[in-house]
Amino acid sequence: MKYVKALLSVAFAVFLVYALSRPWGAIPALGPFISPYTGFWQNGEAPLSGHFQDRELELDSLREGVTIRFDDVGVPHIFAQNNYDLYYAQGYVTAKDRLWQMDLQTRAAAGRLSEVLGSRTIEMDRRARRMGMGYGAEVNLKTTMSDPVSREALLGYTAGINAYIDQLSAKNVPIEYKLLGYEPERWTPIKCMYMLEQMTLTLAGRADDLAMSNLLKSLGQETVNELFPNYPMLNESPIIPAGTPWNFTPLPIPSTSNRNGAPDSTKAGNEMMPAIPLSEPNVEGLGSNNWAISAAKSATGYPILSNDPHLELTLPSIWYQVQLHTPDMNVYGVSLPGIPGVVIGFNQNVAWGVTNVDADVLDLYKIKFRDSTHAEYWYDDAWHKTRKRLEMIAVKGSTDSVRESVIYTHHGPVVNYEGEKGYTGPSLAAKWIGHEPGNSFRTFYELNIARNYDDYRQALTHYVGPAQNFVFADNSKNIAITVNGKFPLKRKEQGKFLLDGSNPADDWLGWIPMAQNPTVKNPPRGYVSSANQSSTDPSYPYYINWRFAPSERGTRINERLEQMTQATADSLRMLQNDNFSVMARTILPTLLEYLRVAPLGPGQKAAYQTLADWDMVNSAEAIAPSIFEEWVGALGTAIWKDELHTDSLAFRYPSRDRTEYLILKQPDARWFDNVNTPAKETISDIVQQSFKVALDTLTAQHGPMSPAWQWATIKDTEIVHLSRALKPFNSAPIRNGGGGSVVNATTHHHGPSWRMVVELGPQPKAYGLYPGGQSGNPASPLYMNMLAKWEKGELNELLYMKSAEEKNDRLQSTWTLKKK
Amino acid sequence: MRVLGNYLIILVATALLQFFMPWWTIAVVPFLVCLWRSGHPAVAYAVSLAAVSTVWLAYATFIHNSTQGNMSDRIAELFSLPSGTALLFSVTLLSGLVAGFAGMAGYYVRQLFVKEPLTIRT
């Protein structure tokens, strides 16, 4: 009997310990997780009053000493004697604040999420592998490491991150590791390249070639030309002002493909399992604004520059503020965790910023394989060998890796295969700028130390992608903007539709010479700006893309800059927060005219009146923008869905500009008729019906019209934790104005991820913040300490230090890094 | 006296050892102590539970308060508990149960080795 008791009691105790030592589904191993010695408790942080402490660290492989001063919002100001130490310290402090973010983003890029998250992310990983992210990272690493300056930066940065990782004990790892049940792994230089690839994928990784080919097939060339023009028909305010002379002799471009670029009869298929987001509509809010005004327009007598990149808003913030100082450099701005240097910022003499260029740098080529082994493909009237790259996707909780053989043609990797499960289109290979070797780090490095306009122009020559509109201002009172990146030399519309992978004439024809990229310096109008709209007017001799972001933000920015005089940093800050709806100004009066004569119920009348009285500002408390935005969406669907939508094939709707043109200038167009009803609808019918649909939708979701319809509520901006799953790490709901088509492009999950204004001058004065904070730890007082100000549209003054010994009340603590 | 002694030994040993050892120290220590000396299964259970709970409750409360619950409150929400304080007590209870059952196992294993107390036959 006593043996039984002993055995049972021991067995139960052992079972208890075992059960608490292993994860159960999404629940981490509870024992270590809840222990106050090792668990989540240890990730708690002292409130701000006890946050800042001086430290002295002895670290491996530093060459000389480094001093880091932290200011009151936790920004590190790094003072080093050489570049290696500088980037070492940047790596160290970035890892201190953002280690898990760096880990997750580089894993996502490398297709290694399943290794730590299990089978639910296999498809995501497969996409990354098929897209050739690893190939792109490898070729970029090779180029970058061949440049001694870049090499030193990457090695220093890597060593710094690893020095931080090495001193971590189990109890100190970021909370996400504890929750997800894995450990940090050492950093390697290629991870920096993966970060760049991830940005390239986010900003230049979409193609609607398949959708456009489907439309071409179903609607015919003439209709596609009519509905999908290559330049906006109603409004545009191009980045390079119309009339700017092109001071170069353009390269010749063969005018047509010898076998006609239009697709053959191959069925372009659906995309139930697309390898890449083949026809995802461009996300509104995934754009950016930047501008600079000349000395003549400013009250300071020097240029003022502004930039707010719009990206998915997450916690921790996408950006990380830092000041980097050596005897040859003193730059302040934001970095991307995982990449050394400053991406957007300013120094003693210059300031710069970036917005995305919507260049067509991802093209899909139809591939004809000889047989199902995919060993050979047809090109230039002969069979050519493919290359195979075996990708192993490790999966947590499984002993077997998923094997993915990615086939490479000379175009690039094959992202979809004819006949594969869930996909009915042709095999497609992706030709993508992310596979092009380059050294984009070098561009940022040279901007970080730039002293004048010539340095800026020189810095841009190294840049490959994702193409950006680089705005610039300097102390010699120059302002400039360059549509910059490595742009393929293409025929007009080459890549608007699927390309023929067997036809050499469909290959990219070379590159637009960097010096011929669209650029303007000190234009007579006294300002330069960009908001992702068309790079140039149609007079530019090269083809960059047939579609760009809608023109409203650019139009509004240019209108306000045109009128600005005696401007200060605050004038530019207010423009960043401008909520005026150019879209409403363009079409609302016409739409209301159709509504005025319609029979309306009492609720509809009230909504009509709300719109009629609206000042067309998307402010937080207004109800009209909620109705207008819902209505415009319903209207677009009502006009286009009956003709263009299919359940099984990729498709896209015409641009907003084209739709507005239709409403304003072509009210009798056949597109207004709903082909699914026997009646013949007119524009008037469609406008009225969609108005009712919009009100019904709002009523169904939020009850009858009331303050519950306020724009901030409907827009519902929230800043979510990068995991997208750990809700307690999200922000509280944000109450601000904005919208996808307004300058303050805040939407549900996207918006200004960093706002910066820099007044150039003998002593630069700069302001900026992001909707988050320096720290990635949800328990830190610095996790989202900048959010309240961001919500109100305010900015923090940025502390630009001159020396490590400088005294300033905002400086809180000093870290001294010593050579071990 | 032995009960208080065991309580203190387990308390001090687990409090210190956990700085270097894994979390399951809270099972091993009560097991060994009760294997060494214990007189009754319920007492072994209770003493182990009380000692380890004291350690976890004290340390966790200290962190919870000094960090104003800025992590514990969020984790509580993640586990659908009403507050960081509720989490604090749940965690404490769980640690106590592990220690209690380990201590009781220690007692029963001890019974395999100790001789039956002498009984005098007449």
Automatic annotation (TrEMBL), chain A:
Gene Ontology molecular functions: hydrolase activity, acting on carbon-nitrogen (but not peptide) bonds, in linear amides; metal ion binding
Cofactor detail note: Binds 1 Ca(2+) ion per dimer.
GO biological process: antibiotic biosynthetic process
Record-linked Pfam families: Penicil_amidase (PF01804)
Catalytic residue positions: 288 (nucleophile)
SUPFAM superfamilies cross-referenced by the UniProt entry: N-terminal nucleophile aminohydrolases (Ntn hydrolases)
CDD domains per the UniProt record, alphabetical: Ntn_PGA_like
Keywords assigned by UniProt, alphabetized: Calcium, Hydrolase, Metal-binding, Zymogen
InterPro entries xref list: Ntn_hydrolases_N, Pen/GL7ACA/AHL_acylase, Penicillin_amidase_A-knob, Penicillin_amidase_dom1, Penicillin_amidase_N_B-knob, S45
UniProt binding sites for Ca(2+): 360, 363
Cofactor requirement: Ca(2+)
Recorded coiled-coil stretches: none
Similarity comment: family membership: Belongs to the peptidase S45 family.
Protein name (database record): Penicillin amidase
Source organism of the structure: Persicitalea jodogahamensis
From TrEMBL, chain B:
Protein name, UniProt field: Transmembrane protein
Transmembrane annotation, as ranges: 6-35, 42-64, 84-109
Source organism of this protein record: Persicitalea jodogahamensis
Domain of life (superkingdom): Bacteria
Keywords annotated in UniProt: Membrane, Transmembrane, Transmembrane helix
